[in-house]
Structures are given as C-alpha cells and as structure tokens.
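> call design_seq(struct)
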C-alpha cells in the first residue's frame, strides 16, 4: 500500500516524517480492538460478548486508543520507511499520538538515518605481510614456564628469600598512626619473581627470613586505583612466616608424559616451537586488524548520528565523574577529555558502519554456534544462568555485542586479506571486490512499537571492534578486603 507521508530534512542525517493514516484504517483498527474486548471481557449486567459498543467506547476509551495506536503506528511507520527507502540509525521519537476514531490520524516521527558515503578502493589502504620467527630463547622461556607451573614448594627454614622464592607473610599498615581499611592481612603470599605488588613494597622481601619483622614507609602512586590511598604516605609492618623455594621438575619422560604424547625433550621442543609460531601469527593478524581499523577511522570523514555521539559522550562523562572527580572540577581538563572522547566515538561509529556494511557486501556472517558458546561462557563467568539471562534486555544486548565482535573480526580479517592480496577466506564477495567500504548498518530490525514506542536502533554500535587486550592483569586486585594494600591497582 502507498502511504501519505511527507519528509523534512532537518540536517544531513536527521529526518522528520509526518505520516497520515486514512479514516477507514483508523475505524478498522478500532473495530478490531472492540472485537477483542467483546470476546475477552466480562461486564456485570451483560452476557459475554453482548455489552454495547457505546458503553465500551466510553468505559475503555483510553485502552481502545492505545491498542489502536499499537496496531497502526508500527505498520504505517515501517511502510513509510520502505516507501522512502530510509534506514534509521537512532531510536525514533514519536509525537502527535492523539487518535480519534472519527478522524484521519496523522503522527510525526523524528530519527537520524544511516550515513551514506563514498566507497574506498583496496589501494586506499596499505599493510605489510608479517614475518614470524621463533627464537631458541622463546622456546626456553615457554619450557621454563611449564616447569614452574608444575614445581613443588620446599620450606627453606632459616635461609633468606632470593631469586624466585615465595614468602608467606602478615602485614599491618597505618596512615598517620591509625589503621586504614584493607591495610592489614595475614597469610599473604608474595612471589619474588612476579610483579603483583607495588615495587617499593615488594623489594622489602628480598633477603628476608622466616620470623623476621620489618617496618618501612611507602608512598602510593598518584594514579593508584583506590582514591583514598592515591599519593598518600603510609607505614607498613610486615612479618615473614615462611620462605619457600620452588623445586622444578626434571625434564624426564614422566614430565613430558604429563603434557602429551612426547617421548623426549627434542620432540616436545619441536611442538613448542610450532605452538609459539601459531600464537605469534595470531598476534600479528590481530595487529593487522587493529591497523586496518585505524586506517578506516582516519580515512573516512562522513557524518555520524549526533544523537549517538551525544548519548555515548554523556555515558563517558558520567563514568569520568565517578572515576576521576578532579577532572570534572577542572573545566579545561574536562573539556579536553570530552573533545578527545568525541573524536574517538566518531571514529568508532564510522568503523562500525563500515564493518556492518562490509559484512553484507561480502556475505560474511557470524557463526551462531561460536556466538552461543561465547555467550554461555560469559554468562557462567558472571555466575548467571544463560537461559535466564537471554530472557532479559541486558542478555539480549550482550548476545548482540558478542555477535558484532565476532563479525568485526571476520570482516576485518577479510579486508586484511584483500589488502595483502591473499586469497580471501570467506565466501566470494558480492559486487566489486576492490571496494572496501560502503554505507553503514542498515538496522532492518522489527520495531517494538508496543513498548511505549521506544526503539533501540543503535544497538550499542559504539563498541570498539579492535579491543585492546593489553590491560595490566596485575591491576585486578581487591582492596579493603584484607587482600593486601601493597598490591598494584590503577588505570587500565
């Protein structure tokens, strides 16, 4: 059917539609609502299905109007989008939703559309084929790491701690002479070869012996993750209760049998070399995907929806307020951080639009089994029932994000192959294989107009598809729970 609709361009991406619903359609919608009411409702004084229309329209006026809206608005809005060939990229905002069964119904809706932009050819991008080598020291380090993971611990008695020994200790901390939250604990373990604690704290244990007590001052870094301790000077008293040495297992047949069907060290080293090579190749491929992502961000300058930028910037500013209150109080710093974040958001949105379109252009789809497996794994890590989680809005968003992340990896890998002249792994692309970009996500999703006319067309598209996996794992420590305030904490 043809819809009577007018469209106004309010800026490059923002559109306002005025959609008219004919009177006969309005009346038909009301008739359908009345039929449902008559079939399902029981009204005192009337036999089932026999109460008068006039009474229904008076008593259930608002209900009937709401049901009629939910019938008409989604149908006519979607038809208007198809008729005008418009693809929303933001949540539509509806207005003029007052409906009268005796008049044609005209409603307004505003949204921003998916941006359009020129395609870039393959030669607009450049990459170098990675070279991977595995040195003998790499194999040595991996073998040593495996031995350490299977080592046994031996009490050193009165000998001092050195090398890669492990010290068990108790500690008490004070600030200005008074204890502070999380500043004391017992039975902590510190590995001299690891870096899980602040350097100035950890160095106190080199040469310590069981039963020895030490007192020393320590100043926490300015960027320490616990704000109440950042930049503060405290005093620690530590007492070593045990010093243990790590006894590595011998490289014999028994050791290699634990790791697979290997007879000797030579065969296992060959295995490790191949394993390391595959790992390095995977890392190099990720670096190439990161690099092509940065090139896409820098080479495309098309406009992206202001609504999405504003929403994401507000999210960032709220997070910044909690994470670094001092930055919010410094107007100059706050504005600089906000401007930098705006540029990052714009670049990520452009990258997302390019990736989404390329997925369609090249016929690339996420593997549903792998997506499901990742979802279940994350759900279990969150101690959530995956089936229950899927029924929630949060779970649906999480599933979508996992799917998008996998899609991004596949698409960017495909682009890397094209730029490097490799045989592409996915199915043969539709259209010109030399085109590396096209308009962004089409968002051809069903609109849930029944829920207060709210629509999530954006689907969290600000997610960075080239996640930085370089976070310092040593930062992931509890505070204020007796886990040791000497541990690292801070920025990711």
């Amino acid at each position: 059917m043809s819809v009577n609709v007018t469209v106004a361009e309010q800026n490059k991406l923002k559109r306002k539609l005025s959609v008219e619903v004919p009177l006969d359609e309005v009346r038909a919608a009301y008739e359908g609502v009345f039929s449902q009411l008559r079939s399902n409702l029981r009204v005192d004084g009337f036999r089932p299905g026999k109460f008068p229309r006039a009474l229904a329209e008076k008593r259930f006026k608002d209900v009937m109007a709401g049901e009629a809206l939910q019938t008409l608005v989604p149908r006519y809005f979607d038809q208007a989008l198809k008729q005008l060939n418009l693809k929303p990229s933001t949540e539509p905002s509806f207005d003029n939703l007052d409906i009268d069964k005796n008049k044609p119904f005209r409603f307004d809706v505003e949204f921003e559309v998916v941006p359009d932009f020129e395609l870039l050819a393959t030669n607009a991008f450049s990459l170098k084929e990675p070279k991977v080598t595995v040195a003998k020291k790499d194999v040595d380090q991996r073998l040593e790491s495996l031995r350490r993971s299977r080592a046994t611990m031996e009490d050193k008695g009165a000998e001092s701690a050195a090398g890669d020994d492990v010290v068990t200790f108790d500690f008490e901390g004070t600030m200005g002479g008074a204890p502070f939250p999380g500043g004391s604990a017992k039975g902590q373990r510190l590995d001299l070869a690891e870096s899980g604690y602040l350097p100035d704290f950890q160095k106190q244990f080199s040469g310590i012996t069981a039963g020895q007590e030490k007192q020393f001052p320590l100043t926490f870094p300015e960027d320490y993750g616990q704000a109440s301790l950042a930049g503060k000077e405290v005093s620690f008293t530590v007492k070593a209760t045990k010093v243990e040495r790590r006894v590595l297992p011998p490289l014999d047949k028994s050791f290699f049998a634990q790791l697979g069907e290997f007879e000797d060290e030579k065969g296992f080293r060959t295995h490790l070399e191949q394993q390391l090579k595959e790992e390095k190749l995977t890392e190099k491929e990720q670096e190439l995907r990161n690099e092509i992502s940065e090139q896409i961000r820098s080479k495309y300058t098309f406009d992206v929806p202001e609504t999405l930028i504003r929403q994401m910037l507000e999210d960032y500013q709220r997070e910044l307020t909690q994470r670094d209150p001092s930055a919010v109080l410094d107007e100059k710093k706050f504005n600089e951080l906000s401007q930098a974040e705006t540029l990052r958001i714009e670049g990520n949105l452009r990258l997302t639009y390019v990736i989404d379109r390329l997925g369609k252009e090249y016929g690339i789809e996420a593997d549903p089994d792998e997506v499901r497996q990742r979802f279940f794994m994350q759900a279990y890590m969150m101690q959530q029932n995956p089936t229950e989680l899927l029924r929630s809005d949060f779970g649906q968003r999480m599933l979508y994000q996992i799917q998008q992340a996998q899609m991004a990896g596949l698409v960017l890998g495909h682009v890397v192959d094209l730029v490097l002249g490799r045989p592409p792994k996915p199915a043969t692309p539709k259209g010109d294989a030399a085109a590396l970009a096209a308009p962004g996500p089409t968002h051809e999703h069903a609109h849930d107009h029944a829920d207060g006319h709210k629509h999530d067309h954006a689907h969290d598209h600000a997610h960075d598809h080239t996640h930085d996996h370089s976070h310092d794992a040593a930062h992931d420590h509890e505070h204020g729970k007796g886990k040791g305030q000497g541990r690292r904490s801070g920025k990711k």
